[in-house]
Amino acid sequence: MLKTRIIPTLLLKNVGIVKGVKFDSWRRVDTILPAIKVYNMREVDELIVVDITATSESRELDYESVAEFSEECFVPLTVGGGIKKITDIRKVLLAGADKVCINSAAFDFPELITEASEKFGSQCIVGSIDFGETEPGKYVCYSHSGKVKVDKDPVEWALTLERLGVGELLVTSVDRDGTMTGYDLTMLRKIADAVKIPVIASGGAGNYGHMLGAIKEGHASAVAAASIFHFTQQTPLEAKKFLEANGIPVRKFRVH
Questions:
Q1: What are residue 8's DSSP bridge partners?
Q2: pTM of structure
Q3: C-alpha closest to that of 11 among 167, 229, 213
Q4: Fewest Cβ atoms closer than 10 Å to its Cβ: which of 166, 202, 214, 219?
Q5: Side-chain half-sphere of 173: how many Cα atoms within 13 Å?
């Protein structure tokens, strides 16, 4: 059985790390290099770093910054934001990222996913799905960091991304983001059960029990979180211990 991964998410805006609620009301919480150094020590399995304004500002990632912080990152690193072309993906990978995360460009240029997976391998292409519930039982996708509604069913879009060639999915509930009230288990499970590739749950983690629910009830392969690690005393290491105590296989950690 594959080991469940604990993945902190770092959102970049104007060089600093920010966190919001429902993709809004952003506040600065840290700077990137100190945060990465802390997570190195806390035995996280991976890190996700996304520049949340690159796409809406129609600019490229700051590849020099990516190279700088990737050099300090000793766990697998996924980087996203503003990726629109094959050359963007190549630059991110050459800067030191292990994977790239693509959201908005997949709607406009679906062929990018296929070309990228063929050139670089599907294992380093992460399809990002931001979704929300517009009315009871009615879900849609969002692009441009939640600013643009895309009238696509998240499950159907997940299947499309899988067919195009992504190696895994990062699935984020816009409604739950930053609320720390738990993941959207209904949609998470629908997506995880529909596809054959790993699904990372994102949006809403407020305690270790929420992570356990995402895995047991939501059928996620990994859990991503931000607010729980920024604003509480809960840590990735303690999350691993909790999951292991509840029968979930996790990657090895040192006993402190």
A1: 225
A2: 0.93
A3: 229
A4: 219
A5: 27
